[in-house]
Write a structure and sequence with these properties.
Blueprint: H1 2-13, E1 18-26, E2 29-37, E3 51-52, E4 57-58, E5 64-65, E6 69-70, E7 78-83, E8 86-90, H2 92-96, H3 101-104, E9 106-113, E10 122-131, H4 134-150, E11 152-160, E12 163-172, E13 175-181, H5 190-194, H6 204-216, H7 230-243, H8 261-271, H9 279-285, H10 287-303
Parallel strand pairs: 1-9
Antiparallel strand pairs: 1-2, 2-10, 3-4, 5-6, 7-8, 9-11, 10-13, 11-12, 12-13
Length: 304
C-alpha cells in the first residue's frame, strides 16, 4: 500500500511538464521549484506546415555542413568567431561549468512595487512556479503570502534556456509566476523613437473630450476572458471547409464613414459606457454594413 501511495503522489506532480527546475533564493532562504509554461499551446494560434506544392510533401530542414552534408546533433558544438573563419569551440558541458550552482538558481535580488517595472520590458514568456517536494511547500507559501500582502514583485536572474536571463516573480491568486524580462540595454528608449516624428499639438477642447472618453469608456469591471481569438476560429472553420471540399469566401469589407477628429471624439463620448466596449460606436455608426457582414457570415456558416 505504501508503494501505491508513493506512485499516486508522483503521478499528481507530473501533470504538467516542467520547462525548468532549480533553486529559488531570496536572502538566505532557498527551496526547489519548477517552472510550468503558462501558455496553453492547444489554444494558441493554428500552426501550418510548409509543403512542396507539386507533390504536397512536407518540407524538412536539415543541419548541413558544406563539406560533409547533413550533420547529426551529436557532432554539433557551439563556436564563437573571433576572426574571419576562425572559431573557438565549446560544448554544452563546458559552458555549464562556467556557472556555479548558486548562479544557476533563480535569485531574487530586489522586491519592487508593480509600477516600477514598465511592460515594455516584458519578454512575453510566462511561467507558473510550483514548489518541488514537501520541504519546499512552507517557504513557497511564505514567500507568496508576504509578496501578496506587501504588493511587491521580485526581480532577479536565472540561467534559463542555456543563458542568463532577467526574470520577474510575482504572486497571482496564491501562486508564484515568473515572467521573463528584457535587459535594459535590449530595449530602445522612447527618446530615440520620438526623434523619428514630430509630435502634433492639439486643442484644449479635443484634449478634454479625449480625457472624458478615456475616463468613462469602460466603467465596469474589466474581464480579460471576454476577448476571443476570432481569427483563429475563422481559420479553423476554413480548415473544416477545405477538408469537405467546400470553397471559402472572404467576408465583405465594411465601408467606414469618414468623419473629422472632433466629431469622432464627440460621438465616442456620447456612446461611451453604453455597454462598456468599443463595439457600441462601431455598430451605431455603421449599422447597415454590420448587418450585411452578419448576413455574409451566416451564409458562410451554412456553406461550411
Amino acid at each position: 500500500m505504501a508503494t501505491k501511495r508513493k506512485k499516486t503522489k508522483a503521478k499528481s506532480r507530473s501533470k504538467f511538464r516542467a520547462s525548468w527546475r532549480g533553486q529559488l533564493r531570496f536572502g538566505l532562504v532557498s527551496f526547489e521549484v519548477q517552472a510550468v509554461n503558462a501558455e496553453i499551446k492547444e489554444n494558441a494560434e493554428v500552426h501550418f506546415h510548409l509543403l512542396h506544392e507539386p507533390d504536397h510533401e512536407r518540407i524538412h530542414y536539415a543541419k548541413m555542413c558544406p563539406k560533409h552534408g547533413e550533420v547529426p546533433n551529436a557532432e554539433i558544438v557551439e563556436g564563437y568567431e573571433y576572426a574571419k573563419g576562425k572559431y573557438v569551440e565549446f560544448d554544452k558541458e563546458e559552458l555549464d561549468s562556467l556557472r556555479s550552482e548558486r548562479e544557476k538558481a533563480l535569485t531574487i535580488d530586489a522586491f519592487v512595487s508593480s509600477d516600477e517595472i514598465d511592460p515594455i520590458y516584458f519578454h512575453g514568456r510566462m511561467y507558473y512556479l510550483l514548489p518541488s517536494g514537501a520541504s519546499a511547500s512552507e517557504p513557497y507559501a511564505l514567500l507568496e503570502a508576504a509578496m501578496a500582502k506587501k504588493g511587491r514583485w521580485g526581480v532577479g536572474q536565472v540561467v534559463f534556456s542555456g543563458r542568463e536571463q532577467l526574470a520577474l516573480i510575482r504572486p497571482l491568486d496564491g501562486v508564484l509566476t515568473m515572467a521573463m524580462l528584457n535587459y535594459d540595454a535590449e530595449i530602445r528608449k522612447p527618446a530615440e523613437i520620438k526623434r523619428e516624428f514630430t509630435r502634433a499639438h492639439t486643442t484644449p477642447r479635443k484634449l478634454k473630450l479625449a480625457e472624458e472618453l478615456v475616463g468613462k469608456w469602460h466603467e465596469g469591471t474589466f474581464d480579460f476572458s471576454e476577448y476571443k481569438d476570432n481569427y483563429r476560429r475563422k481559420v479553423q472553420h476554413a480548415i473544416e471547409a477545405k477538408e469537405k471540399g467546400v470553397d471559402i469566401e472572404a467576408p465583405e469589407e465594411e465601408e467606414g464613414e469618414v468623419i473629422n477628429l472632433i466629431e469622432a471624439l464627440q460621438r465616442s463620448v456620447a456612446h461611451a459606457g453604453t455597454n462598456g466596449t468599443a463595439h457600441t460606436v462601431h455598430r451605431s455608426r455603421n449599422g447597415k454594413a454590420k448587418a450585411a457582414k452578419k448576413k455574409s457570415h451566416a451564409s458562410h456558416r451554412r456553406r461550411v
